[in-house]
Each structure stands twice: as structure tokens, then as C-alpha cells.
From TrEMBL:
InterPro entries noted in UniProt: Bact_solute-bd_prot1, SBP
Domain of life the protein comes from: Bacteria
One Pfam match: SBP_bac_1
Native source organism of the sequence: Fictibacillus fluitans
Keywords: Cell membrane, Lipoprotein, Membrane, Palmitate, Signal
Protein name: Sugar ABC transporter substrate-binding protein
């Protein structure tokens, strides 16, 4: 009898030990995130790594963590110009982040390489978004990303420098000629050295859009970098540097991360994502206006942030929770007040003028978006990022050495047509 009782005790002990072992191994990742002993940490790859931006993004992530106990969020940074390669390298090396910010120019490439999760079957409240927002995250009819914010570039200007030079403030309907005239008057030279520039940096991509040009047509089938409109836009950008000297050369701007904030440039390309940093650090009065109009009128390129989920994530459910929080949940209610990021949901459509750190003329941005004056300038084709990488060095060389835009752009256009079988 004693032997039988002892045997039963041993069996029960073994069963108990086995059950404890199995219970420690059987919980799914979702279960552990909602109350298990180990938190899930989601990594999101971003390019915004300035201290103020990191801090403000962190506030939204901390709110998500509070709403979802057991899930932590960690920002991983990569430089903007190295961002796409970084994500692809991490994905190929088995170190893929759970979520990733996406540059529209690389969207088609990411999809073609199979590094993004297809979200088409996910439960998405499509009715919550403003018109056309969902399409910005689609490739060939499938949903590969959701949009966190959608806006466009404007031009920020230093009121104090305008006042000192007795130059009238720019108006919402100004043109390239108006801009150039102001930039010339706001450029100052002392002892043969430029101590103040009219413009910090006018991005070529924006000049192309404003003049009705581009690198490749919207449908991705035709090369247009050598169209008259594109050539004129690139030449104008080069002339700002090499002919009119109102924008610094790369050598002149070397070592200076923000000439506008330093009071060394009177104007700067700026989006609402820059408002918080400018409001905090500018020691002068400033405001914004739409970009000056080229041949296409007062239009500008759409600036929007698609966020996708890495196909290799080990935490798909938790990652989708975060993506939903950012694109349609509480994150949308917070971002206008923290990041000055324009919401994409209908319930917050009128918040632009009330956003945190909004300048006096924030209404001009609201009008631009409301009137549909933004243009999607990056076709979602797999080769687009590669094409841009071939064309951009040519444009950089035109700006750097003052080469003839017509000749150089026609040469690279023919090369792209041949290599990618485009018209």
C-alpha cells in the first residue's frame, strides 16, 4: 500500500512538472502580449531621428503602450538617403523590423521583393479615412500599407529678414519670378563671401512637379525627365545655385545642418512636420506660404507617410494593432497636437489650423489640400527607385558643376529608356 501511494506521488509530481513546462511553452505571442510574463517589443524603422521628432513620436508610442499592456515599441533609425537599402538589408539578413515607414518612390520595389505583408484581408475601417487615402497604400489593387499623414511641402520664410531687407512677404499665389526676385534681394555678400542666402534648398522633385515635369509618367510607362518642362525645372534649380547664387553650393552649406534656423537663409522648404522644431528653435518670426508656381500653377507634390508591416514579423497581430492605432486610432487624434502631422481620418479633417505650433498662415496648407492641389509624383513600379538612383546623380552633377540640363537629361533619359524598356 505504501509502495502504491509512493508511486502515485511520483506520477503526480511528474505530471505537475510536465504541465508547468508545457504551460510555459504553449502561450502564443498574442497571449503573452496581453498578460503573459514576457512583453512583446515591436520595432519600427523610421528616418526621423532629430531629438525633438524622436521625443514627440515617443509620446504617441507611449500612449499605444498604455492602451495595449504587454506591447512595447522601439524606434529604429536609418538615414533618409540610406533608408531603403537599410530595410532591404535587414529583411534579407533575418533582422527585419516589425513595421516600416515607406518612401513612396520605393513602394513598388518593396512589394516586388516580397518584404511587406499584404493587408488586404485585414479588418480595416475604410470609411474612417478621407477620400483617396486608402489608394495611397495600394499596389495593383492590394493593400500593403496604411497612411499615417498626408500633406505637402510649403515654403517657410523668416519675417525678420524680409523686414530688414524691406521685401514684401510672399503671397499664396506667387510665381517663380516673384520667388527669384525676393531671393536675390535677400542674399547678402560681404567681402566677397555670401553671409546670407535667399533660399536654403529648393528640392528638384518639387520644381519638377510645379513645372509639370517629372522623371517618369504617372503610369510608369514613359520617361519624361527630358521633356521641356522637366529640363526647364532642373535648369532653374541649377541657376539658383550657379547663376543667381541665391542658394548655397554643397561646399557653402557643408557643416551647416539648418541654415534657416541659424538665420543664414531667408527661405526654406518646409512641411508641417517641421513646425514643432522650427517653433521651438527659431529666434525670429516666421510663417509659411504655398510653393511658388511654375508652368503647372500653384501645385505641389503629395507628401504622405505610408507605414507597412514587415512580412517576416513574428508579431503580426500586435504590429497590426500599432498600425491601426497610428493610421485611424488614437494616434490620429494625438499627432496633430504633438507632431504637427496632418491627420488622414475624416473626424479630424479641420484640424490643420489648430495643430500644435501652426504658423499664422496654416490656412494656406488647408486650402491647398482641400482644393486638391497636390500631385502624386512617384509611380508604384518596382524599378522606380532604381531609376531615381540613376537620374538623381545626373541632376546633382548639373547643380554641382553647372552643366547644361538639356544635354545631360536627354542623355540619361535615353539610357533609362533602353535599360528599362520604357517609351
Amino acid at each position: 500500500m505504501r509502495k502504491k501511494k509512493g508511486a502515485i506521488t511520483i506520477v503526480l509530481t511528474l505530471v505537475l512538472a510536465l504541465s508547468v513546462f508545457l504551460s510555459g511553452c504553449s502561450g502564443s505571442k498574442s497571449e503573452s502580449a496581453s498578460g503573459g510574463s514576457k512583453d512583446v517589443t515591436l520595432r519600427i524603422l523610421v528616418w526621423n531621428n532629430n531629438p525633438e521628432g524622436t521625443k514627440l513620436e515617443g509620446k504617441i508610442f507611449r500612449a499605444f503602450e498604455k492602451e495595449n499592456p504587454g506591447i512595447k515599441v522601439k524606434q529604429v533609425f536609418a538615414p533618409y538617403d540610406k533608408f531603403n537599402d537599410k530595410f532591404l538589408t535587414m529583411s534579407a539578413g533575418g533582422d527585419q523590423p516589425d513595421l516600416v515607414w515607406i518612401q513612396p518612390s520605393a513602394f513598388g520595389q518593396f512589394v516586388s521583393k516580397g518584404v511587406l505583408m499584404d493587408l488586404s484581408d485585414k479588418k480595416i475601417d475604410k470609411g474612417a479615412y478621407m477620400p483617396n487615402v486608402m489608394k495611397l497604400g495600394q499596389v495593383d489593387g492590394k493593400q500593403y500599407a496604411l497612411i499615417r499623414d498626408a500633406s505637402t511641402f510649403q515654403l517657410g520664410y523668416n519675417k525678420d529678414l524680409f523686414d530688414a531687407a524691406k521685401v514684401p512677404y510672399p503671397k499664396d499665389n506667387w510665381t517663380w519670378d516673384d520667388f527669384l526676385d525676393a531671393a536675390k534681394k535677400l542674399t547678402k555678400v560681404k567681402n566677397g563671401k555670401t553671409v546670407q542666402f535667399g533660399m536654403e534648398n529648393f528640392y528638384t522633385s518639387e520644381l519638377l512637379v510645379e513645372n509639370g515635369g517629372g522623371i517618369v509618367s504617372k503610369d510608369g510607362k514613359k520617361v519624361i525627365i527630358d521633356s521641356p518642362e522637366s529640363i526647364e525645372a532642373v535648369q532653374f534649380g541649377s541657376d539658383l545655385i550657379n547663376k543667381y547664387h541665391v542658394q548655397p553650393t554643397s561646399a557653402q552649406s557643408q557643416g551647416l545642418s539648418n541654415m534657416f534656423l541659424a538665420g543664414q537663409a531667408a527661405m526654406k522648404m518646409m512641411g508641417p512636420w517641421d513646425w514643432a522644431d522650427t517653433a521651438k528653435n527659431a529666434k525670429f518670426k516666421w510663417d509659411v506660404v504655398p510653393l511658388p508656381a511654375g508652368k503647372a500653377g500653384n501645385v505641389s507634390a503629395s507628401a504622405y507617410l505610408p507605414i507597412g508591416i514587415g512580412k517576416g514579423t513574428e508579431h503580426p497581430d500586435e504590429a497590426f494593432k500599432l498600425l491601426t492605432f497610428l493610421s485611424s486610432g488614437k494616434g490620429q487624434d494625438m499627432q496633430a497636437k504633438t507632431l504637427s502631422a496632418v491627420p488622414v481620418v475624416k473626424r479630424n479633417a479641420d484640424q490643420i489650423e489648430e495643430m500644435s505650433n501652426a504658423p499664422s498662415n496654416a490656412k494656406s496648407l488647408a486650402n491647398t489640400l482641400k482644393e486638391g492641389k497636390t500631385i502624386m509624383n512617384a509611380p508604384y513600379i518596382p524599378e522606380y527607385a532604381e531609376i531615381v538612383n540613376k537620374v538623381q546623380p545626373v541632376i546633382d552633377n548639373i547643380n554641382l558643376k553647372g552643366k547644361d540640363a538639356d544635354k545631360e537629361l536627354k542623355k540619361i533619359a535615353d539610357q533609362v529608356r533602353s535599360e528599362y524598356n520604357l517609351k
